[in-house]
Design brief:
15 helices, 66% helix, mainly alpha, abc type-2 transporter like fold
């Protein structure tokens, strides 16, 4: 009972220390709000609200159907222009895409010929231009295939490929990148806050004050784990409900409560890692260099940036012992696929076991460093 009281009051001290640092609090809020929004919406793998114009020289029912196939949110409502205006509007940057439908387009199709449709692209926005060209090609091809099925032209192919996108039907990149951004911030800031708290105690001399009190290294370390983990947990809740669900409109298919159980398990590991790095570091500068190396490995091998399956076989075996890999895995299962406990309990168990083992080692190392200090 006395040990629990000691941990409680030490955790309160840690919380006061964190909350009294206004710069640190603002940084945590910034990292879990604007940074999440920026990473989710700043880079996109799909076309959104692209400007497009049509120079229709055919003026047929088919050309009208092609023009009407483009609509928000992928494209703005198409604008009709003349062919002699194409060069001027492209020079002025008014449209990213200008599609030219040639004369007698529908008649040539009915006759079995293959007329050309010209697509002019403003390639100054390289990524959107390349992706948008593929969108335009697919939309026109699908509409023409539908049209030709009503004629005598044979358009049957050897295979009818039917695509069904699960969990993200429209391929919205923000659905994926926002959750990955939250997971990256959890890994980074949990390690930073906990490790910095250990080094701050040593540099400010307050660790010596704790040593003269009837406290054990376990109680000191556990208080830092609880206090800093609580700060990150609250920030994660605010980010998920306010930024991801309300602002970015990302749907959560599974149980939010179940996901936060997994977050608690991962926070236990991340805070233990922070205590470990803070213990072996002799200065804040050395700790910052270790953070760069450790966090980069944790994030790159987690499967959030690139799938684990694309990594070499020997590296995949190593990542199995990284809690970050299991964190990303059960987050995708719960949030995107709506899986329950039966689908993620193995990931939960791995994170808990590895976190407990690492915490035990970190406390032992922390106890050893305190004994040297004494």
């Amino acid at each position: 009972m006395d040990s629990l009281k000691n941990i409680f009051w030490l955790a309160i001290k840690e919380l006061r220390s964190v909350l009294s640092d206004k710069v640190l609090v603002m940084f945590v809020l910034y990292a879990f709000t604007w940074t999440i929004y920026q990473q989710a919406s700043g880079t996109s793998n799909e076309v959104n609200n692209a400007s497009i114009a049509f120079a229709d020289e055919d003026q047929s029912a088919l050309s009208e159907e092609l023009i009407n196939a483009f609509y928000p949110p992928r494209f703005q409502h198409p604008v009709r222009i003349r062919t002699d205006e194409i060069e001027r509007v492209m020079d002025e940057g008014r449209f990213m895409f200008v599609v030219v439908i040639p004369p007698q387009f529908e008649r040539d199709l009915r006759a079995g010929r293959q007329p050309d449709v010209q697509v002019n692209i403003d390639a100054t926005a390289m990524q959107q231009a390349g992706i948008g060209a593929g969108y335009i090609h697919n939309i026109i091809t699908q509409r023409l295939a539908t049209y030709l099925k009503r004629t005598d032209v044979d358009t049957s192919g050897p295979v009818n490929l039917v695509q069904r996108k699960l969990f993200n039907p429209n391929g919205v990149s923000a659905w994926f990148s926002s959750i990955v951004a939250i997971m990256n911030q959890i890994s980074l800031l949990t390690i930073v806050l906990t490790g910095a708290a250990v080094i701050r105690e040593r540099e400010h001399g307050t660790l010596e004050h704790l040593l003269v009190m009837p406290l054990t290294p376990f109680e000191i370390a556990m208080a830092k784990v609880l206090a800093n983990g609580l700060v990150i947990l609250v920030a994660t809740m605010l980010s998920l409900f306010l930024v991801v669900r309300m602002v970015l409109k990302v749907p959560v298919q599974g149980s939010v409560a179940l996901w936060f159980v997994g977050v608690l398990l991962y926070l236990f590991f991340a805070t233990a890692l922070g205590v470990f790095l803070g213990t072996i570091s002799r200065s804040m500068a050395q700790f910052a260099l270790l953070i760069v190396l450790v966090v980069m490995v944790v994030q790159l091998l987690s499967g959030g940036s690139t799938p684990v399956e694309s990594q070499p076989g020997w590296l995949q075996a190593i990542t199995y012992f990284l809690p970050s890999r299991h964190f990303v895995s059960f987050s995708q299962i719960i949030i995107y696929r709506g899986g329950g406990l039966a689908a993620v309990w193995r990931n939960f168990a791995m994170v808990a076991v590895i976190g407990l083992a690492f915490f035990s080692y970190s406390v032992a190392l922390f106890r050893k460093s305190i004994a040297v200090t004494k």
